[in-house]
Amino acid sequence: MALNTDKNSYTILFSILMVVVVGAVLAFVAQGLKPTISENERIEIQQNILYAMGVNDNVDGSREFIAAEKAGQVFSEYIKKQLVIQNGNVTEDDKAYMIDVKKEKNLAKDPSYSRRLPLFVGEKEGKTFYIAPVRGKGLWDAIWGYVAMDENMVVQGVFFDHKGETPGLGANIKERFFMDDFTGEHLYDASGNFKSIDVAKGNADPKNENKTDNEVDAIAGATITGNGVSAMLKSDLKLYVPYFKNLKN
């Protein structure tokens, strides 16, 4: 007996079957790609940390990471310690770079949870760098990055990225003309108190020559993204102040 494909029941059953088959195929493909995705995430994190401390392939005005095939080796060469700060305790963990900062921030909404703070100690040309991850909210979606500091919380370099900021405006937080302005900026004010760095629209120092004013020049047309960067730096970096204070003891 021929199958009647004109019935509604046939259409419904066929649709259900296709959903099941396609879903199974997609799940199989996703499972197969999972190791590759995880490896790419690992490499990207290592490249970003290295970029913040000035280990990159930049030429002139370009923004270039260390090549992916070299990232693991170079990361091991420059990053001497990976630390986890939690509830005032500092431990070493060679997988600290894989801590999910977004997840930790969400967990910390519970007052009973003590957030894990990764910190990477690097050495380059005889100088020590302390690189901390930061994460916040831009105009449209998440923004994040890494800030490299010396023992006095003077910024030595940064890397910023975003998920969906406006091209040519807020998306420029990942361009060198913006990121390079942070190098040399102080996170403490003149009295030695933590103040962070504001992305200031009315900054009176457009050439960014004053490194102790706790400000960098804003990106034209990207006020909300700039405010997000300011808030991100202040909220996340202040958590590391006790660690840096202890370095002086």
Would you write up a description of this structure?
The structure is a single chain. The protein is of the alpha+beta class. The protein has one domain (42-247). 36% of the residues lie in helices and 21% in strands. The protein has six helices and eight strands. The strands form two sheets. The chain has a six-stranded antiparallel beta sheet. It has a two-stranded parallel ribbon with strand order 7-8. Strand 1 and strand 2 (89-92) form a beta hairpin. Helix 1 (8-52) packs across helix 2. The longest helix is centred in the N-terminal third of the chain and has 45 residues, at 8-52.
H/E element sequence: HHEEHEEEEHEEHH
Q: Order of strands across the biggest sheet?
A: 2-1-3-4-5-6
Structural class: alpha+beta
- Report strand %: 15-25%
Mean pLDDT: 90
* Biggest sheet features: 6 strands, antiparallel
| Number of structural units classed as domains | 1
Q: For the record, give the distance between the C-alpha atoms at the N and C termini, rounded to a whole number.
A: 89 Å
The count of strands amounts to 8
Q: Which regions contain 5 or more consecutive residues with pLDDT less than 50?
A: none
Instruction: Classify the helix fraction into a percent range.
Output: 25-40%
Based on Cα principal axes, name the global outline: globular
SS field, number of helical segments: 6
From the alpha carbons, calculate the radius of gyration and give it in angstroms.
23 Å
